[in-house]
Design brief:
The structure is a single chain. The protein is mainly α. The protein folds into 2 domains: 158 residues, no CATH class; 82 residues, no CATH class. Helix content is 77%, strand content 0%. It is built from 12 helices and no strands. InterPro entries: TatC (IPR002033). Belongs to the TatC family.
């Protein structure tokens, strides 16, 4: 059987075409984020007030948010508006990403890839909401409890935004564990039996990770550690329905034969 060698000129044209397509898709996605940012910026104070509500409820009466340098409030509002604009533009960003990737996938890969993409976004947003509505109130209530007559709690806008986004990203990424488990099984890097055998190590590692990421209180550590372990168990259950890549390729070859 002779192997067809692609013309270098054709490869170059294809590469340039892909790069131009990528540039076009990224431009449209960024335009969607820009539109979302412009729509969110007039409501920046309301959005920030909603974002700091878990801390505001935990603060004593005399305490309030402050900023310690002239540009801190402006850049904090800018960041929160940009983040809101990105959330508003998620449908546009996902569509542009899908439109760029889909032509290079086989039909059976398209049927799997798109639901997995939507599921990963849903899990991330669910993890972020879990941290904001459940973990934040409990964690901030504990942290603010150290304030007294001599020590007043006066968090800065910049530090609160950075601290909160770190927790949100940590919880959102943790809720992607089932997707990671299925991807590793699909690639043949691990097996379902191997993941079952490592349950005890994952259980211990989940709480070690929670201790490193979350504030130093047992409540937030448990609220992150247990979901990580449970999501790992969910990943094991879902991975049972995933066919490793080598087995899938051999089945396809047999069908073609």
């Amino acid at each position: 059987m002779t192997r067809t060698v692609a013309d270098p000129g054709e490869q170059s044209d294809t590469l340039v075409g892909h790069l131009l397509e990528l540039k076009s898709r990224m431009t449209r996605a960024l335009a969607g984020v820009l539109v979302g940012f412009l729509a969110a910026y007039p409501f920046k104070e309301r959005i920030f007030s909603f974002f700091i509500e878990p801390m505001t409820r935990a603060l004593p009466e005399r305490s309030s948010f402050i900023f310690t340098n002239p540009g801190e409030a402006f850049f904090t509002y800018l960041k929160i508006s940009l983040l809101t604009g990105f959330l508003l533009a998620i449908p546009v960003v996902l569509y542009q990403f899908w439109a760029f990737v889909a032509p290079g996938l086989y039909k059976n890969e398209r049927r799997v890839f798109f639901p997995v993409l939507i599921l990963s976004i849903f899990l991330f947003l669910f993890g972020a909401a879990f941290s904001f509505f459940l973990v934040f109130p409990l964690a901030f209530q504990f942290l603010v409890s150290f304030a007294n007559e001599e020590i007043m709690a006066m968090p800065t806008m910049k530090e609160y935004l950075g601290f909160s986004l770190t927790l949100i990203l940590a919880f959102g990424a943790s809720f992607e564990i089932p997707i990671v488990c299925m991807a590793l099984v699909r690639l043949g890097m691990v097996t379902v039996e191997g993941m079952r055998a490592k349950r005890r190590y994952v259980f211990a590692g989940a709480f070690i990770l929670a201790a490193l990421i979350t504030p130093p209180d047992i409540i937030s550590q448990v609220l992150l550690g247990f979901p990580v372990w449970l999501l790992y168990e969910l990943g094991i259950v879902l991975s049972r329905y995933v066919t490793p890549q080598e087995a899938a390729d051999s089945e396809s070859a047999e069908e073609e034969s």
